[in-house]
Write a structure and sequence with these properties.
The chain is built from 18 helices and no strands. By secondary structure, it is mainly α. It has a single domain, classed as Na+/H+ antiporter like fold, CATH 1.20.1530.
Length: 433
């Protein structure tokens, strides 16, 4: 009888926890909209306290569900991000985003390599893997956060695209170098193919999946009323593209963009596909799903984080500072003072958090039995929460006019307000944008 009571208590605890997660996500999002205190940081802190600090939850408790959860959250966030892109934003922002991605990854890569090789006394290939592992800004952090900031729409689009581009850049380069370390053979041709043709192919496949889904929704009317059918198609798209060894993340982003811009298709094609492939009701439901998955994901991220020792934390702190210092110079160099406001420049500088991609890459060398893998994993796991913390603090401060006036010396090139050409900062007051 006692066992049954304990079992019932356990089930009740889980049910209550799920309900708590739902209301927690909404409450923290409301807090973010009102105060600009990022909900992501609070969620990570909750997970870290419940996991590593108090030991109430262990990563092993999630089993294989943990890795599935992280992938599911990433797919839904990217799909949602793609639905919020339009052609004009994409055309005007793709080049700046690509340049920022490349310049930012190279600059912090050089600094991180030298710090790991000289200061931490690691082998050159360990230092190189470490530098590549922290090369991407986190789409799972950036995309939900920028939606509620007061930066211009173009700045938000650049940041969203940058997070997608840097994920591709970091993952491809890291995996090719990792295979080279294991086989003692390196191929720059594989890196170029992975970044160029593979990425383009992934985007084209995503567009193709978007057209197919629009066709299916037009021909089979029951699909129009199925709840979460679009999200299931996004998961199908991601999985199938990954099975063929292409980039599922870019494919899902392209899928969302295609479905959101079906009105641009030629008339002969519109006669065979559903023009309004995603309804307002579907977007509303997607927003709820994204919020729940985001809440669970960042609590889980806090649970899996761990700090090995004080030296590792200090090293992670220094590298995290370098991430934002190098971003500052990249923004100053690449973002025109005539097109962006001071708020835009400050928020783009602040958006350097590391997240899911870095966490996944950090664990691979150790799994492969590479000597020095502990250094890569421990260091990157320290950088992830510290970089998110820095990003959150700087974003919160940037939203305050008094702080922008104090930071005027650093961002003297930029005016307080936009130039009046559609780049003015506009606060988003609703989640249904």
């Amino acid at each position: 009888m006692a066992v049954n009571n304990r079992h019932n208590f356990s089930m009740e605890y889980i049910i209550v926890s799920l309900a708590f997660v739902f209301f927690l996500g909404h409450g923290l999002q409301w807090l973010f909209m009102k105060t600009k205190v990022p909900d992501l940081l609070i969620l990570i802190a909750i997970g870290f306290i419940a996991g590593p600090v108090l030991g109430l939850i262990n990563p092993s408790d999630f089993g294989k569900v943990g890795s599935v959860l992280t992938t599911l959250a990433l797919v839904v966030i990217l799909y949602d991000g793609g639905l919020n892109l339009n052609t004009r934003d994409l055309v005007s922002s793709s080049l700046p985003a690509a340049l920022l991605s490349l310049a930012g990854a190279i600059l912090i890569g050089i600094v991180a390599f030298l710090m790991a090789y000289i200061v931490a006394a690691q082998e050159w290939y360990i230092a190189l893997l470490f530098a590549l592992g922290i090369g991407s800004t986190s789409a799972a952090v950036v995309m939900p956060m920028v939606r509620f900031l007061s930066a211009s729409k173009r700045a938000k689009t650049i940041l969203s695209l940058e997070s997608a581009f840097t994920d591709v850049l970091a993952i491809v380069c890291f995996l090719v170098i990792l295979d080279g370390v294991i086989e003692n053979k390196f191929s720059f041709q594989e890196i170029l193919v992975g970044i160029g043709p593979k990425t383009l192919s992934s985007v084209l496949m995503g567009i193709g999946f978007g057209l197919v889904w629009s066709f299916l929704k037009r021909k089979f009317s029951p699909l129009r009323t199925m709840t979460f059918a679009g999200e299931a198609w996004a998961l199908f798209t991601f999985g199938l593209i990954e099975i063929f060894d292409f980039n599922g993340a870019m494919g899902v982003l392209a899928l969302g963009f295609t479905l959101a811009n079906m009105n641009l298709m030629p008339d002969w094609l519109l006669s065979t596909v559903e023009k309004d492939a995603v309804t307002k009701n579907e977007i509303s439901l997607l927003g709820e799903l994204t919020l729940i998955l985001k809440t669970v994901f960042f609590i889980y991220l806090g649970i899996i984080l761990k700090f090995s020792d004080l030296t590792t934390v200090l090293f992670g702190l220094i590298i995290s500072l370098c991430i934002f210092i190098t971003r500052f110079f990249c923004i100053q160099l690449l973002m025109s003072k005539d097109e962006y406001s001071r708020l835009d420049a400050m928020i783009m500088t602040a958006m350097g958090p590391r997240g899911l991609a870095a966490a996944v890459l950090a664990s691979l060398p150790l799994q492969k039995g590479i000597e020095g893998g502990h250094f890569i994993q421990d260091s990157i796991f320290a950088i992830i929460p510290i970089s998110i913390l820095f990003s959150a603090i700087f974003v919160m401060l940037s939203e305050r006019e008094s702080f922008r006036l104090k930071a005027k010396t650093l961002f003297y090139r930029y005016k307080e307000n936009g130039n009046g050409n559609g780049n003015e900062a506009t606060a988003i007051e609703s989640t249904d944008s």
